[in-house]
Specification:
Layout lengths: L2 H13 L2 E2 H8 L3 H13 L4 E3 L2 E3 L6 H6 L2 H12 L7 E4 L3 H13 L3 E4 L2 H6 L6 E4 L3 E3 L4 E3 L1 H7 L6 E4 L3 E3 L3 E4 L2 H11 L4 E5 L11 E2 L8 E5 L4 H9 L3 E5 L6
Parallel strand pairs: 4-5, 4-9, 5-6, 9-12, 12-14, 14-15
Antiparallel strand pairs: 1-3, 2-3, 7-8, 10-11, 11-13
Helix pairs in contact: 2-3, 5-6
Length: about 250
């Protein structure tokens, strides 16, 4: 996605409905070029075209959250993708930043992606990336597989890295999630003793949710933004975690 397409996407996210003519005026290119950009962004599930306009995708969960603060989440995804080498098999859990990571890997590296997210699997259907979608109980709102069958399938596959989304973190409590069954899936992944990497913006730190996501020593690295409080970063590093940050705002 080039800078013009990022501008287009941000306008659609901010305004909700933008005409082709307005996009052409703002970006300084022809309406033909804008239509080509919109066709590409629609194929990649970033937005939807409607009678001379671009509108956000129709979703109340993963896609909607992906569009929220999209530039930051894309920077997080690109930083995470830099940790993966060609030929690796990686597990990518559910969540908006993880979905962007999956797309980044599928488009630029030769990897195998294991996931419990049907949304991520669908997102990669036009790529050459090999995708393994694990089964289980289909949690419709999150478009994710959960439950005892999912735990069983996780035990039967192998991966070098796991990218995990979180809902909260507090010192002494560690990483937490808001959904019991999804948190249980994360615990099963952590039992594999792979390199577990948290992918999350800094707003999740200092927040508590009911369900623990494994013990802190099962995680190895955090990728977040530079809005992370210095005291929180120090506490995470004292627990042995490597903390990588990206700019919260777009660099100029």
């Amino acid at each position: 996605m080039n800078s013009r397409q990022q501008t287009i996407l941000q306008m659609v996210i901010d305004q909700g409905r933008v005409s082709v003519a307005e996009l052409a005026r703002t970006t300084g290119v022809s309406e033909v070029t804008i239509r080509q950009d919109l066709n590409l962004l629609e194929r990649q599930s970033y937005l939807r075209r409607a009678h001379g306009y671009a509108v956000p995708v129709d979703s109340d969960d993963v896609e909607a959250r992906m569009m929220s603060n999209f530039p930051l989440k894309r920077r997080l995804a690109m930083a995470a993708a830099g940790l993966v080498q060609d030929g690796e098999t990686v597990f990518i859990e559910n969540g908006s930043s993880n979905a962007l990571l999956a797309r980044e890997l599928a488009e630029h590296k030769r990897v195998t992606i294991i996931t419990v997210s049907s949304y991520i699997a669908h997102l990669l259907k036009e790529t050459e990336c090999e995708v393994i979608l694990l089964g289980g109980i289909y949690q419709k709102k999150s478009e994710s597989m959960v439950g005892p069958l999912t735990r069983q399938f996780i035990g039967q596959v192998h991966f070098s890295k796991a990218f995990i989304g979180i809902d909260g973190w507090l010192p002494g409590t560690g990483f937490t999630g808001r959904d019991m069954m999804r948190s249980d899936v994360v615990s099963a992944v952590l039992d594999k003793e792979c390199e577990a990497i948290v992918l999350s913006d800094s707003s999740k730190f200092g927040v508590l949710h009911p369900y623990t996501l494994g013990t802190i020593n099962k995680f190895s690295r955090i990728i977040t933004d530079d809005g992370l409080d210095a005291d929180i970063r120090a506490a995470l590093e004292r627990d042995g975690l490597t903390v990588d940050t990206v700019p919260r705002s777009t660099p100029v």
